[in-house]
Amino acid sequence: MAGSENTTTLPGCINGLPKRGTGPGIHPDAELLFAWDAFTDAVTAYQCALDGEEGLYEEITFNLGLRIEAFRPKTMDGMARQLRYLLTKYIDCEDAWEVIVFGGNMTSGLKEILDNVHHVGMLWRMLESIDGPAERIARAATGRNGGSTLIPALGMTFADASAKVLALLGDHQAAAEARTDDPPDHLVVEACEIRRAVFTAPPRTPADALAVLNLLADDGAGLTDGRWVEGQETAVTLLRDFMARQVAPDQRV
């Protein structure tokens, strides 16, 4: 960060922190998705800031916007975020921020722009085709039917990720028993990265919860024999909250 004119937006201590989210199994657009989430949080903070304190959030928002612009997305998730950012910046009106960034209901003012500015309307239709209400409804339907839902950081469902962890650890165990001169320890590293993502993502369906429990209870991957597993406390808390919602559907925890 030395020599950067934007060092005031981040604390200097981050230079000593280990990098995370770069291991195998991480979502291909993980940094872009994180940048988008941080961008929307910064915009919200700007809107809520006290008079005279908006400047800090303006700078953070501007720098995060530069990062979003610089990415070359690898997935539809990443492309949707970039399109939302591009379209909002191009229109540059309050309604665009509310609808396109924060997902509010369509306003008459924005609809008029989309209907009358040809290229803007075309970009909006492109965005709707990959990240519109139909796609969100389809994902919600999966949850209502009890199927396992997606963990965005991995690009896999809870069930698939849990199975992947067990398969990787099984492959490592088989190689160790074969007493190879070069044990494939990278399999354990990848399994731990995926398991951490499973344990720290909130389950949304019974299938999600079962996938988490399968890992917690597994002899090789879980808590047997008093073993400590990274993320286990978070996993137990999230499972408790999930079960509380099932017992009292109207309760929000």
Automatic annotation (TrEMBL):
It comes from the Bacteria. This is Uncharacterized protein. It comes from Azospirillum doebereinerae.
